[in-house]
Design a protein that fits this description.
By secondary structure, the chain is an alpha/beta fold. Helices cover about 45% and strands about 15% of the residues.
């Protein structure tokens, strides 16, 4: 059901941004980041605009190259990328102990790939929360096509200020999404507020590891390029996320870096030294084809001006993610399950 053609990619670049304004949006987005003179405080202060611009610009590229679920996964030998992604989502559902009929919240749901998979797997009703209008529009259409539009829905809102009453949901999850929060403690506090007492929150977080050296220029460069290419205000450490959970009031039941135990490297789909027919578009040759296709589509004005710039910073981000994975300084899969106390 994902968009797979060149014209689909071209028509989607920019999301809800007017096509003649895409280039200026790219330039403004780039200015938020340190590689282009921006700083962390500016990104935090303007995170809503920054993240919205990022996903308006990048979503069609994500869907074209990756599918409906915009996240990484631990991977077994002989397992395809798509199979690993589904298993990754099922694992989260099992760890949360989801039961038929429960009311669940997906914080930062993207276009709803995990939402649909987990809803079908667990027979639960899931609300996807997202502050990007284009992704919600796309997600609603995919829900309809998947036949889950009666039990799953989307809400357009900021996860730092959720429009839900206290103690609303039986479970909450987030998959590589709350890394966009300008303040992780305030984000976790808001999740704590809307979760029912005695129930659990589970997430996969993007984090820098203990191997990251803030005085190492190469480490800083990799971190900055990951932030630029992924719409992040800052990448937090594992320790910062764990401390924030506890300060928010959660009891941490489980926490570990799932990537550390993955039989195959989590960054394998982005590694241009590898070749895979099942994830061809992320290989070196696949990227070469996409790069030239986008260039041609922009030249004939089927894709808006600025499309090549988006494709370029996404490629740069992919390279930085692979570097971060090889250096062991970054993980996209710090996993935890945390419970809101009953009293």
């Amino acid at each position: 059901m994902s968009r797979s053609g060149a014209l689909d990619l071209a028509s989607g670049v920019g999301g809800k941004i007017e096509k003649n304004e895409v280039l200026s949006a790219v330039q403004k987005y780039e200015e938020y980041h340190v590689c282009h003179g921006g700083d962390e405080e500016e990104r935090r202060a303007n995170y809503t605009d920054m993240v919205n611009k990022y996903y308006d610009l990048a979503t069609s590229f994500y869907e074209y190259g990756w599918g409906e679920s915009f996240h990484f996964a631990s991977r077994w030998k002989g397992e395809s990328l798509r199979e690993s992604i589904k298993r990754h989502e099922h694992f989260l559902a099992v760890q949360l102990g989801l039961k038929c009929g429960q009311k669940v919240l997906d914080v930062g749901c993207g276009i709803g790939g995990p939402l649909r998979e987990i809803a079908r797997f667990s027979d639960t009703s899931i609300t996807g929360l997202n502050n990007n209008e284009y992704q919600i529009t796309r997600g609603k259409e995919l829900n309809r096509l998947a036949g889950v539009d009666k039990t799953c829905n989307f809400v357009l809102a900021d996860f730092m200020k959720m429009p839900f009453s206290n103690d609303t949901f039986d479970a909450v999850f987030a998959i590589e999404a709350t890394c966009h929060a300008p303040d992780v403690l305030d984000c976790y506090k808001e999740i704590y507020r809307v979760l029912k007492p005695g129930q659990c929150f589970a997430a996969y977080e993007w984090c820098i590891t203990d191997c990251f050296d803030p005085m190492n220029r190469e480490h800083q460069r990799i971190k900055g390029e990951v932030e630029l290419g992924n719409g992040l205000p800052d990448i937090r450490s594992v320790g910062q996320c764990l401390q924030a959970l506890k300060l928010a009031g959660f009891e941490v039941l489980r926490e570990n870096d799932v990537a550390a135990d993955s039989p195959l490297p989590w960054y394998l789909p982005l590694d241009t030294t590898q070749f895979s027919l099942s994830s061809f578009r992320t290989t070196a040759f696949g990227r070469f084809i996409t790069r030239n296709m986008v260039k041609a589509l922009e030249f004939v004005r089927l894709a808006p001006e600025g499309s090549q710039r988006v494709q370029a910073f996404l490629e740069k981000a992919a390279e930085a993610l692979v570097e971060g994975g090889r250096e062991g300084i970054f993980t996209p899969m710090y996993f935890f399950v945390a419970r809101k106390p009953r009293s």
